[in-house]
Each structure stands twice: as C-alpha cells, then as structure tokens.
Amino acid sequence: MLHESAKRGPGKGAPRRGFGRLRELPSGRWQAAYTGPDGVLHRSPKATYATEDEARSWLAGERKLIDLDAWTPPADREKLKRQRGETFRDYSAKWLVARRTSRGEPLKPRTLSEYRRYLDNHLLPAFGDFPMKSLRSGAVEEWYDGMGPQTPTERAHCYQLLRAICTTATEDKVMPANPCAIKGAGLVRAAKKMVPATLEELEAITAAMPERLRLAVLLGSWCALRYGEVAELRRGDIDLKNNVVNVTRGVTWPDGAATIGTPKSAAGVRPVDIPPHLLPVIRDHLDNHTGKAKTALLFPAVNGGHMHPRTFGKAFDKARAAAGRPDLTFHMLRHTGAVLAAQTGATLAELMERLGHSTPGAALRYQHAARGRGAQIAAIMSSMVDGEGRRDGSG
User: Fold this and answer.
1) Cα 369 from Cα 389, distance rounded (Å)
2) Which of 82, 191, 326, 346 could form a disulfide with 350 if both were Cys (CB 3.0 to 4.6 A apart)?
3) How many Cα atoms sit within 13 Å of 137 on the Cβ side?
4) Structural domains present in the chain
5) Among 329, 357, 343, 324, which Cα is nearest to 217's?
C-alpha cells in the first residue's frame, strides 16, 4: 500500500533538477517531490511553496537525510512531530516573524539581528529540539546557571527573550505554563558604576580627536545624542535659525551594512536645543567638513558612506586614553550630557524630552551624582538658611 505522502507527486513533465522533481502551478506556487530509498514517490508535507527556492530547499534537506542514512518517510516524521508537539526551534522562528513592537510595527533590523544572535548562540543549542509543551522550569534553571555570571548583560537579555517567547506560547496554548520563573533573572545590572566625564576630561578628549570628528564628541555629550543618531546627522538636520539639532533618524549596522531607520522609540524623534557655546564649532564644521547639499553627512567615512562605530572608535580610543579615561565609551558621553542638563535644574520630563526617552525609568538610568556635587548641594542648602534660620531661632 502506498504511503499517504506518496499518493501523487508533481505530474508528468515536471522539470527534474538534480534530486527530486519540481513543478510550478498556474498560481505561481511550487510543488516538490522525490523518490525515496523505499522506491516510493514522496511529496512535501507542505502542499505548495511560494518560491522555487523554498521547494528546492526542502528537496536539499531530504537529500541530506538520505546521505546521512537518517531518512524516514516525510509523513512519518510529520506524524511524530504532531505527537511530540512543536519544537522551540520551529516556534521561535515563527515568533520572530510575527513579533511586533508595542505600536504594532515590525521589529527594527538591529533588534531582529540581536534576537537571532541570542537564539543561535545560546537558546537554540539548549532548547532547539525541545517540544514546547515539554519545556519545564528545571531545564530553564539549568541553562541559566550554565551560562554563568561572567556575562551578566548577555545572560539577562537571553533570558528576557526566552521569557517573551514562552509568554506568547503560553497565551497561544502551545505550552501549559511559562517555565521562566527565575526571580530577577531578566534584570540587567551594571557590572560597575558608570562615572560620567568631567568638563576637564571632556575638553581633553575633544582636543585629542581629529578636527573633523571633534563635533561628534560635543554632540554626544552636550546634546546627549546616541552614536547612531550622530552618524546619521546631515546638514539639513542642523537648524541654526532656531539653534536646534533635529533628530529624526539613526543608523545601525545589524548585519554589517549600514541601515537607516527611525530612532529607538517615538520619543527619540525630537529637536534638541544646542548649547550656545557649541554654535561657533558647528558653523566651522559645516563650513570646513560638510558637503553643501542638505543631505550631506556631518561625519562621513572616507568612502563617503556612514562612519562605522569601529572606525570612529579607533580615534576615540586614543583620545580617551590621552584624557586618562580609557574606560569611557562614546555612549557614556550621553550620561555626561544627562548630568550636565540635570545640574541646570531640568525636570525629569525635560530630561526625558532631551534624551528622547518615553518612560521615566529609561531617563533615570542616566541620572548620576556628579563627583563632588553632594558637598556643593549641602553648602547651598546651608546658604539658604544663613541669616533666615537665626530669625527663626535656629542659630
């Protein structure tokens, strides 16, 4: 008796291309079939494919199973798969495609790239072949402990992704309960306290940078811009009439190629008021280091494209070392900018607007006590009651 999958494959005249048979239907979709080691014609459990490449890929996978002597009829494998349930590998692949942001938009390329990296490097090796309905908290705890504390940020992000996938699977009734229940496992804790740059250090770093890149350091600190925002700035984004930098885009390199998109959140699209002392530097940079077109990049690479952070980093590494702050990253300049703004008396709402954050929690991460500021605050508090306190009978 013929196996169910072998009742009928692509008909006569279907093109033979190496192993198996391919046939294009009038609809433009494709069917695939092959004769297995049992002498029976087997067709794909998936009735049709959108492209020839997808159909050919299925045939290549079947050929590999035969070569490895690991082949069983496709229908038998599908039946076993239904009995076991969907694996984490298959479900996570669908989850990535369907995932949307809180605003209903597809994931940004950089986020998608990071998720794939976490899956490929950490989650799929551990859980890829697990049936979703069989994944339990014990397996998650064993994996989490196995990652160890050496890379706390990476481990926390991987756990966050695993928990998000399992949360959706639980809502979809694919698994009975979410196995991710390790308290605090998704929290990202800074490995060390981040110390913003002082004004003297900032001045030294700027002076040590190549002249055409000095403004990038100043915008990263005094305007608290992210590197991706700085690298995508163009002449038309600088409004010297109103003295603002209009941040509407950013550039990332998710797979090695520059990808332009909107900032990380809706709040990231913002005008940033420029401190007046930067205006002469900006005018000089526009005159001597920027093309005349409105679309000209402020900080282009030698080839005219976007400057990759690694290229910028070579100059920045030397500059921060010269300033005695080899620990200072470009992103930490943003922390410096937040402290400088906070010291002016800016409210939390004002800081959120300037930093481009949509939640207070995100903005608060950039609040740091400037070195020596505590003593200054205490002295100012005393000066407020000096004389006044005596009239109240306190002196």
Assistant:
1) 28
2) 346
3) 9
4) 4-84 (no CATH), 88-171 (1.10.150), 199-373 (1.10.443.10)
5) 329
Per-block mean pLDDT, blocks of 10 residues, the chain (395 long): 37 57 93 94 91 92 91 86 82 92 82 92 92 92 90 92 95 92 83 79 96 96 92 96 93 86 77 91 96 96 92 96 94 85 72 68 55 58 56 42
